Amino acid sequence: MTPVDDVVLNFSPGSLMLLNGILAVVMFSIAIDLVPEDFKRLARGPKPVLVGLVSQFLLLPALTFGLVLLTTPQPSIALGLMLVAACPGGNISNFITHRAGGNAALSVSLTAFSTVGAIFLTPFNIAFWGSLYEPTREILRATSVDPVSVAITVGFMLVLPLVLGITLNIRRPDITAKLRTPLQWVSMGIFIAFVLLAIAANWSYFLTYAGLVAVLVLLHNGLALGGGFALATLAGLSPFDRRAITIETGIQNSGLGLVLIFGFFHGLGGMAVVAAFWGIWHILSGIVLAKFMSRTEAAR
Asked: Is the per-residue pLDDT at 191 higher than 80?
């Protein structure tokens, strides 16, 4: 069996462009829910947003590093976990937060803020945490990842559709009202279908290596959800806000992770399998958690 660190998955340049387009549509579907007043309101009461961003960009990467030190997985798998932890929240977190009876407005705003922050914080976290662990530091050296190039990619792919969506919502709210629900469902469905097709195209690799990452991804996702819940509880946030931050921390934009893996790490096997497995698992864990949370109404 070829070592997972030496495997390169099948992913054409055309597929990468398609994934970029899908993620742009996903971000646009989030943005048409936002207006400038959302940001002003949060500026007047910023504590939940700050706690959410700390959970997303500081706590989760630190917990991930601890998991890597404890389990010492293959270097490409370790870097895949770090990269997923460095990504902003995924769009499905807004849907799951709503289903869980949490603060969906906070979830949408956290996704927006973390997406903007990801321009700087995603490449920083990849470089910082990856360089602290010798095996992953060697991968970063070999691939010569430029944080500025990563920042430009994240900016164009995520922030541009975010700005366009907010602008459309301000100028033509009648159009966004019609687009909102169908576009969110369609974008989510297209993304899930894309991940499944990517897995199908590399089925033999996933059958061979998924077992190496399955337990780690489950532990990683559990740490993310538990860490978000613990930090929000320690910060004294209401159960309504706590549900949003828990889910926002545990639902990662693994699609962005795949783009970065194929764009900058040449489809390195362990990294790609981690991101793809995350892309499926966090949906399942999020839906189950939402079902459990929704049994009781959250105090505000």
From this structure: no
